[in-house]
Amino acid sequence: MDITVVFQIAAVGILVAVLNQVLKGAGRDDQATITTLAGLIVVLFWIIGYISDFFGAVQNLFQL
Amino acid sequence: MMIRILGGILICASCGLLGLYMGYRGVVRARHLAEFKQSLLLLKSEIEFAAYALPQAFANVSQRAGDSLADFYMSLSRRVEEKISLDDAWNVGLKELKNNHLAKEDLQVVCNLGKSLGSIDSEVQIKAIDMAIIAIDDILARVNDQNAKEGKMYRRLGILGGVLITVVLL
After folding, report:
1. Residue B97, SS3?
2. Residues of B in contact with A36 (CB under 8 A)
3. Taking CA atoms, what residue in B is nearest to A32?
4. Which of B57, B93, B144, B158 has fewest C-beta within 10 Å?
5. Claim: this prediction has a pTM higher than 0.80
């Protein structure tokens, strides 16, 4: 697994948290929620392959 | 790698500038509204105290109003002298206003004033101008309030959005 994806996820997490605070401070709660959801979807998109690999490995390990 | 870094810097810079522009739009709108209010005060004094007819009052205001409105009042004066109805002249003049960042709501107030100004009675004209000034004051207070809150937000959003896009694309 490439370690850079971990740093990328961390960076996106920090940036989305700050964006969320900025938008909430300006009274745009709904847009803050949309931004958070967008960040979550982007990160899920990145890690979906790894999650699939992980479940495959678990299946192989326990011969399910 | 150098190209990626350069691209990232360009994205951050352009998003930051976009944020600045979005924040600046509200400031320009408030400035234009204030200029318009100032010109209406001038117009009111021309009609009320100097007792000029509208074409002359418009011409006088055009000499004293800010650059963006000088052309508007001058063309208005010329068109009214050419016997074009004030309502039509007013609307055409508003369409010709360049680089204005006035919102629909602001233009609605100004358009309504054009309809009322066509009245023959100067009392009615002055009352219409007063009403427009009150409406502009109301909008101006709201826009200034919004600018204080949103100007900062747009600047931060621009830079943070740029960094976020860079991180996602890297």
Report:
1. coil
2. none
3. B157
4. B144
5. no
